[in-house]
Amino acid sequence: MAPDADDPLAEQLRQLRREYLADSLKRVAELRGLQAALAADPRAALVQLRQAFHRLAGSGGSYGFPAVSARSRDGEALTQRLQSAGSELTPKDLAAIGECIRDIDGAFAQARASLESESM
Known about the structure:
By secondary structure, the chain is mostly helical.
């Protein structure tokens, strides 16, 4: 039996966390789409990436996934720094953005696995 199985509030919170994680693949796909958009319009895509990272940093923490939040804050800080620099993105910059997205994807995967093991 799952911990707090007879606690309705705890079960509601687990359900909200499951729903949030069910959408995590879409969230990562959005980040990857914005990463691809950097080739066509780097300035606009950086703004959108920073906003997406910011949303994930907040929601990850709100739903109790600190690793998602921390990795997203890293991405937000990186894109903010790149925006402020105002220069063309280098291959190293693009690789760093890709690494942030992979780290977020990994954090989501760990969160999904952790939540699944809680249910057992």
